[in-house]
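In this section we walk through a basic example: taking a raw amino acid sequence and producing a predicted 3D structure, encoded as discrete structure tokens. The instruction is simple. Fold the sequence below.
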Amino acid sequence: GVTAGLLKYRVPRPKGEDKPIGPLMDAQRALGILRNRATEFGIRPDRIGVLGFSAGGHLAAAASTTYAERKYTAPDAADAVSCRPDFTVLIYPAYLTQKDQGDRVSPELTITSNTPPTFISISQDDPVRVETALGYATALQQLRVPMELHIYPKGGHGYGLRRTEMAVT
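The resulting token sequence is shown next.
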């Protein structure tokens, strides 16, 4: 009952760019294409979500908080439909908060009451720091965005790649 699409997005940061915009542009375009061609793909256009692991979790959060306007010039009709995900899944997400700012949500992630429902999973021993998920979840909670946060005691980072004896997998 689930259809998945895999996005291969740009990762190198162009020289002179503080924050890469290419990955967000790729995610916005992919969401628009999926929604625009939903009938052709046999999927419901009102049930398209985004899932990301690690840095991809940051990209999924960015796509879920930056959808009001495209970050590129629209080449065709796929950009006339919404690129807002209907739900978000963040697995051991990275870069959601700024450590030096008391784990305040990163400025490029503008959470509003219209941010999609969000599921977050992370482990306490993740070197990315569990506080990044806690800070993001707190911001969602403050705006009453439906969310679910799962924190496991052990699992580290990258557990989505392999089965282990730990509950997180």
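Looking at the output, two observations stand out. The longest helix spans residues 22-36. The radius of gyration is 16 Å. In the next section we compare this with other chains.
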